[in-house]
Each structure stands twice: as structure tokens, then as C-alpha cells.
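Postdoc handover notes: sequence design on the structure in folder B. Input C-alpha cells:
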């Protein structure tokens, strides 16, 4: 009798403990997702506002709001870098629906644009003289954070159009729920259409870290990816676009051939390869509106 009740007590205690652990785990996961969302949303807000301000400041001369002016001939972009996060149907602020990504790529191809990898662009700009712009109607597709929906939804579209892109992964998240696995990035890397790049170990804003920690975040991530993929990994995109002069210098010392930020980076040039601007593409950037956004970000903005 005594043994039996002790057995029940232990069982109940075990059940209660695992219950608490489970609830705690899901609560923590949810909290983490919310934190990520908050950061990225704030970033997107800043970028959208900056773009709107530029659109306003040029609207008097260009009348960008006139639908007649929404033509691929007017909005010619020499070189630009597009930034994506989730490719899914979740209707979040950072989500682009797969069919819209398909439509965006198709529209740009139909308008005469070609796509190259970020590493190729860095090499080409580095070797071109400052007076010549090495590209015309050339774009780069970048996907941040290494979400699994890239592998499931975006990769088939890239393969369909034979369009290259870059996937920038966070080491701590590899293999976790909703993120790509090592196996997936090995496959992507081996098939050659997608280049894997560094998005650091822990996805912290590099410009706000102590120098030795910023260095570790970049160098260790590069080292681990190179070990795992048996190849040189030479591009980085800064988490949240955050950088400073020291981060740029370190990125160069570590051996990256270039680095990309987000909207507040520099317009791509051979003068400064370590803080190139990218612009966030949203679900509603379709057709000429997409091209106008790229034009404002890469031709009009200083
Ligand atoms: Zn990120």
C-alpha cells in the first residue's frame, strides 16, 4: 500500500515537472519570436520611412506618384541589392508570399534585369575603377536569417528561373525549428545556385558590441561555415544592418571580400565594400512599384 502511493506520488511529480518544463519551453520560444519580430519590424519601419522621405523629396521633379511614370524605362537601375526574410503565406510584416516572390523575379527578368551573386558583385566593383560603374540593370537577391521557408518556398522559384541568390545564416539557429539545417545548406552550397554567407553566430547588432565580441561574432561564424561546407565563405550581411568603422575594418581583416548593411548603408561602390546598402522588399512591392523602390534606393538616394 505504502509502496503504491509512493509510486503514484513520484509519477505525479514527474508529470507536473515535465508539464512545467514544456509550458516554459513554449513560452520561451514564443517570447524569442516576438523579440525577433520587434527588432525587424522597427528596422523595416525606419527603412520604409527613409524611402518615403526620399520619394517625397524627388516627387516634385520626377512626379513619382503619377501612374504614367511607373514605367521600367523611367526607373532604370544600374545595380541594386534586394533584401528578403520570410517567404511564406503568414502575412507577417517580414513575409513575402511565394507567388509574389515569383511575380517579382519574373517582372524584373521581363524588364531586362539579370541577377548575380553578392560575392561576384564585390569582386567586380573592387576591380573596377572609381569612375566606371561596373553594371547596368543588374541585381542581387539576399535572404536573411536562414529560415526554412527559404529552402521550401524560395529555392524552387530560384531554380525555376535559374536565378542566383544568397542565404545569410545565423549559426546558433541552424537546425532549429523553422530554420535551415546543415544538410540543407550543404545541398544549397553544393548545387551552386545559392551562396551561403555569414549573418554571425548570435544575430546581435555588431555596431553596438565591444570590439572583441564583434570580431568573434564574425570570425567564428565564418570559420564554422567554412569547416562545415568545405569551402571559402567570403560575404557577410550585418544583423539589423548594424555596423561602425571598427566593424568594417574587422570584417576586412577577417577576410570577407565585402559586407552588406541595410538601407542606411552606402550606395554600392568600389570605394567602400564593407557597408553596402540593401533595400527591403515587401509583399506589396509588385511590378513597377518594385522597380521604383529600387530606383529610389539605388539611383536617387545619396
Ligand atoms: Zn537578420
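Designed sequence:
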Amino acid at each position: 500500500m505504502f509502496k503504491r502511493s509512493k509510486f503514484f506520488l513520484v509519477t505525479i511529480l514527474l508529470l507536473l515537472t515535465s508539464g512545467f518544463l514544456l509550458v516554459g519551453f513554449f513560452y520561451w520560444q514564443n517570447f524569442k519570436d516576438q523579440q525577433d519580430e520587434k527588432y525587424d519590424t522597427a528596422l523595416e519601419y525606419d527603412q520604409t520611412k527613409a524611402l518615403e522621405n526620399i520619394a517625397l523629396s524627388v516627387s516634385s521633379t520626377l512626379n513619382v506618384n503619377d501612374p504614367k511614370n511607373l514605367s521600367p524605362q523611367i526607373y532604370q537601375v544600374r545595380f541594386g541589392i534586394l533584401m528578403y526574410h520570410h517567404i511564406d503565406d503568414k502575412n507577417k510584416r517580414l513575409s513575402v508570399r511565394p507567388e509574389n516572390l515569383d511575380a517579382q523575379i519574373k517582372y524584373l527578368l521581363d524588364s531586362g534585369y539579370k541577377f548575380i551573386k553578392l560575392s561576384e558583385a564585390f569582386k567586380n566593383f573592387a576591380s573596377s575603377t572609381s569612375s566606371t560603374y561596373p553594371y547596368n540593370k543588374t541585381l542581387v537577391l539576399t535572404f536573411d536569417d536562414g529560415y526554412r521557408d527559404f529552402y521550401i518556398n524560395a529555392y524552387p522559384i530560384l531554380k525555376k528561373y535559374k536565378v542566383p541568390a544568397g542565404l545569410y545564416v545565423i549559426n546558433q539557429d541552424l537546425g532549429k525549428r523553422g530554420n535551415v539545417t546543415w544538410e540543407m545548406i550543404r545541398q544549397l552550397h553544393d548545387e551552386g545556385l545559392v551562396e551561403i554567407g555569414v549573418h554571425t553566430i548570435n544575430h546581435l547588432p555588431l555596431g553596438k558590441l565591444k570590439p572583441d565580441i564583434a570580431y568573434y561574432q564574425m570570425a567564428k561564424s565564418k570559420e564554422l561555415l567554412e569547416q562545415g561546407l568545405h569551402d571559402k565563405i567570403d560575404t557577410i550581411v550585418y544583423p539589423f544592418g548594424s555596423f561602425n568603422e571598427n566593424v568594417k575594418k574587422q570584417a576586412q581583416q577577417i577576410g570577407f571580400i565585402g559586407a552588406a548593411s541595410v538601407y542606411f548603408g552606402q550606395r554600392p561602390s568600389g570605394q567602400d565594400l564593407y557597408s553596402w546598402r540593401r533595400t527591403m522588399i515587401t509583399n506589396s512591392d509588385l511590378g513597377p512599384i518594385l522597380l521604383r523602390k529600387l530606383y529610389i534606393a539605388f539611383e536617387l538616394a545619396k
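Context for whoever picks this up: The chain has one domain: 50-300. Don't rerun without checking with the PI first.
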